[in-house]
Amino acid sequence: MEIWFQKLIDVTAVARTREMFNEALTELAGELGFEYYAYLNLQPVGTFAVSNYSPEWQDRYFSKSFNEIDPVVQIAKSTMKAFTWTSENTRTVRSRRVRRFYLDAAGFGIRSGITIPVATAFRRMAMLTIASHRPSLSLDRDIDPVAAATAVAQLHVLIEQAEIEPTSKPSIRMTAKQALMLKWSSEGKSMRDIARIENMTYSNVNFHMNNARKKLDAGTLAQATALATKLI
User: Fold this and answer.
1) Cβ-proximal residues to 100 (8 Å cutoff; 6+ apart), any chain
2) pTM above 0.90, yes or no
3) Are 184 and 146 in contact, with CB atoms under 8 Å apart?
4) Could you tell me if 43 and 97 are in contact, meaning their C-beta atoms sit under 8 angstroms apart?
5) How many other C-beta atoms are found inside a 10 Å radius of the C-beta of residue 194?
6) Per-residue pLDDT tens over the stretch 156-206
7) E strands along 52-164, which residues?
8) Dihedrals φ, ψ of 84, to 5°?
9) Relative to the CA of 227, which of 17, 107, 136, 209 has its CA 20 to 30 Å away?
10) CA 74: distance to chain centroid?
11) Does residue 175 sit in helix, strand or coil?
């Protein structure tokens, strides 16, 4: 696979649009006998995918928050090295929700693959998966972890620098009041300031801010405000 990883690096040097990226990655995946590729950038807010998976599967993946239970993501986080996976042995999985996830993925032709995670800034992670409809897979040789990580790291940099448009990302639905409170907070206003500006009680501002914090899965209001700057 060393030659394949070199080709992946070469692609990163020339692909500058999502169309170019999709064509090149689909072709590269096909060279190894895989139908699909999926780049996933995991963020506290702003997780997104660039993939040729079915749009229906991508929408389902994020709308059902599958990224939170996806066993491939969990293995990637815990090992931080390239690995192969298959949904063939789902009967050994204890979690009913994870079994349901595997069955849903198989229904869209996603049954086995190779996943390569890389560490990104601020202790976050991105990963590239190439996947197949086959229930199991075998490789001619082991994956070189250094070559794999190097190629995917360069792919990650390309996607960030070229600002390649995601094919799918989760949506966080806030009320108008929640978004307004966070916007004022991002402008440096305290909750007492916001209450005065919007002619609201302090307790009402606090109520909307805390609900927004929960939706963003933030530990503090300051963190929620920082995360919200990416959304509003």
Assistant:
1) none
2) no
3) no
4) no
5) 23
6) 998 988 888 899 887 777 788 888 888 898 888 999 999 999 999 999 999
7) 83-86, 112-120, 124-132
8) -105, 155
9) 17
10) 12
11) coil
